[in-house]
Amino acid sequence: MPVDVTTLAIDVGATRTRVALVHGGRVVDRTESPTSSLVAPTGLGNGLVAGARNLVAKTSAANGSLVAIGVSLAAAVDDRGDVVQERDFGIPAGASLRETLAAAFELPVAVNNDANLAALAEHQLGAARGHDSAAVITLGSNIGLGLIVGGEIHRGAHGMAGEAGLLLLPSVSTSERGNGRRRVDAGRFGSAASAAPEGYAWIEELVGGRALATAAAIRREPSVHEQTDPDAQARVLTREAFADPALRPLGERALEGWALIIATVSALLDVEIVVLTGSVAADAAHLLTTLRRRVAELVANPPEVVLGSLGPDAELIGADLFARAALAGAADRYARAGLSAQSTGERR
Hints:
The protein is an alpha/beta fold. It folds into two domains: 6-117 and 312-337, ATPase, nucleotide binding domain (Nucleotidyltransferase, domain 5, 2-Layer Sandwich); 129-167 and 203-309, Nucleotidyltransferase, domain 5. Helix content is 36%, strand content 22%. The protein contains eleven helices and 15 strands. Helix 3 links the parallel strand 4 and strand 5 (109-113). Helix 4 (114-125) packs across helix 11 and helix 8 (248-269) packs across helix 10. The protein starts with 5 loop residues before the first strand and ends in an 11-residue tail after the last helix.
């Protein structure tokens, strides 16, 4: 895998999108924007191209030396780099993002799920290094899961392995469905607007970062039913917030939901280590001992539970690693054929 090269690493989340230049495995410059601002008015692909061009133009480290693009998406991605299912915050289904970036920059583009890339980074360089099996749970606006099985990322038959945020919790509808969602009551996990099948809610709708922020807003202002500005989320799990009697029940709910995810993963895969990463995980670092204790109550042989060591850049670092690995693979294939990956327009 080439090391002393520059890649463009892009991380598209439900709330924010980061674009970075990575040289020699180190982030040398970056920008961050609300995902919604990149989606409007011409679509996410064009928004990413414009943002990336602005970053490259002002960064001397790029200087025409970009060799590949790695893209981390908060969406299921198949082994071609195509999005399996569109996301309602602007990620389109299919190959359009990959093709738009490839056409704009005339570079190989490697696309994968964000939790998979966080797992790749933590396994190669971070907290899961040296472990044959690991689960990397990304706790941000939503909840993702990257799985390492046999030392490799496990993608599943359709690229949808690890969608931990879509674990189903029984719930009761308390309103009619509108715009694809209805209010539900999930008992100890509270209430939320849910798009899950009738009788259930997805766990990230209850204990993901956006869900917790929305619940906090409702507690402070009962007339609020939806948080209209996802980019102004309350931080519910900091030490200060957890000490607030009004917010503490939300933190306890989150810990119970995360423990349930870890217990489910452990029952299915018996992983050696669980790594928590993302902005919400960082806020909840002071609760790690409590979470471990709860996991031990739910799992006969609990895995080691730790915080990621790469911080909020895990997805960007993973995107760089994945882009360089894809570039090396393409170079190997074409070298055997006496061709250049660049000259053939190789896109993956």
